[in-house]
TrEMBL record:
It is a peripheral membrane protein. It catalyses: D-glucose + ATP = D-glucose 6-phosphate + ADP + H(+); a D-hexose + ATP = a D-hexose 6-phosphate + ADP + H(+); D-fructose + ATP = D-fructose 6-phosphate + ADP + H(+). Pfam families: Hexokinase_1 (PF00349), Hexokinase_2 (PF03727). This is Phosphotransferase. PANTHER family: HEXOKINASE, HEXOKINASE-2. Its main location: cytoplasm. Catalyzes the phosphorylation of hexose, such as D-glucose and D-fructose, to hexose 6-phosphate (D-glucose 6-phosphate and D-fructose 6-phosphate, respectively). Mediates the initial step of glycolysis by catalyzing phosphorylation of D-glucose to D-glucose 6-phosphate. Plays a key role in maintaining the integrity of the outer mitochondrial membrane by preventing the release of apoptogenic molecules from the intermembrane space and subsequent apoptosis. SUPFAM superfamilies: Actin-like ATPase domain. Its EC number is 2.7.1.-. It comes from the Eukaryota. It comes from Campylorhamphus procurvoides. Monomer. Interacts with TIGAR; the interaction increases hexokinase activity in a hypoxia- and HIF1A-dependent manner. It is found in: Cytoplasm, Cytosol; Mitochondrion outer membrane.
Amino acid sequence: AEKGDFLALDLGGTNFRVLLVRVRNGMRRGVEMHNKIYSIPVEIMQGTGEELFDHIVHCISDFLEYMGMKGVSLPLGFTFSFPCQQNNLDEGILLKWTKGFKATGCEGEDVVGLLKEAIHRREEFDLDVVAVVNDTVGTMMTCGYEDPYCEVGLIVGTGSNACYMEEMRNVELVEGDEGRMCVNMEWGAFGDSGCLDDVRTEFDVAVDELSLNPGKQRFEKMISGMYLGEIVRNILMDFTKKGLLFRGRISERLKTRGIFETKFLSQIESDCLALLQVRSILQHLGLESTCDDSIIVKEVCTVVARRAAQLCGAGMAAVVDKIRQNRGLDFLKVTVGVDGTLYKLHP
């Protein structure tokens, strides 16, 4: 079994994690993890590739110092949660940025190479990049340590994606028919062909059109953290224009893209939150609300969050059903790893 110290990088959203993973076997088998979270400023997300990878390496350096491990040389696993073409375990060609990233000079390039170049530019430490994986795959593998029946990975964070174990005979890109292989679905892009048009609303269209990648990742834009607050903001603007909210007055702040953060949505939507607290969140956004306004805003947040959950559930049901059909079973018990937590699905 694996054992020893490993570094891991997790890049897939507005926050970026550096981790030290200590894998032990024998009597005290288990995994011990230390991590630190670093933010990625918008100007770096949308600057040059060199700036982005220099920032990442700067964070690794800070982390090694923080752990008292300056100058070590460790194997490194790179969780990189963007669409990639993967020809080798240690190579991932970035196909396109998603989730608000726009760093130049990266698309079409091997991200492991970009990382190694940035490490060499710093001339401070050397790391052996042994693998690049997608976060859905990483989640499934992590949960697989606890439950060998874990065969699906799901991420619902800044973006959304899933992976599952497919029969090799169905994998056209790889030789051989024996066994199974993990397939990263990139399900965030479901609907880009227009097949979701019947369930998309005018608010989804507005959010999509003003995003950095219009027409792309349409399913993700109905589900994930980067977009839910923006959907709510568009609905609140529409209701206000119709005179149903805030006495028909749209504040300048409400007109600002991204002002209604997804964390406000989940705060407002949480069961225990009293309407006074909803009003104080709205006040923070420069919105003078009545009690009726707060009730409507809470309902909007609930509907948007519930729809996201239902769309996610529908996607997951389709994946589980595909596995069931693959195996010619009447029903299937499957375990799903969601952001590192195990969920057992029973028919």
